């Protein structure tokens, strides 16, 4: 087993052609929040992670030792994307209020608000919650790597 106590770098911050030879460690967004974790890489390497309390793994982080280098890959998850049909401040405020009351982390991407869901049936719940503004927005379920906006430290319920 490889014991990991620190992060060596991040593939998105470093321009390194050797990154193609790295083992891959697929981790959910929820598990990325944990500082103590045990997983296996795509090649079967057993990895024990024990990070300092102020350190969190992120998509693209490189971990390992002299013998083995591993890239952390966040697993995709289901999200609802919400797009305003037209730029309307009132609708945007109501949208933020409704999502905020559900204590969901959000991401803002390409003029859309994204938030994670567990099941497709949650789309119906949000369609009902957004009933007053439903004609002013477009809702869609997507599967992607969800990277929450960093300005709000929200814990899902």
UniProtKB/TrEMBL annotation:
Keywords: Coiled coil. It holds the Pfam family UreE_N. It comes from Candidatus Nitrosomarinus catalinensis. Residues 15-42 form a coiled coil. This is Urease accessory protein UreE. Residues 7-71 form the UreE urease accessory N-terminal domain. The keyword Coiled coil applies.
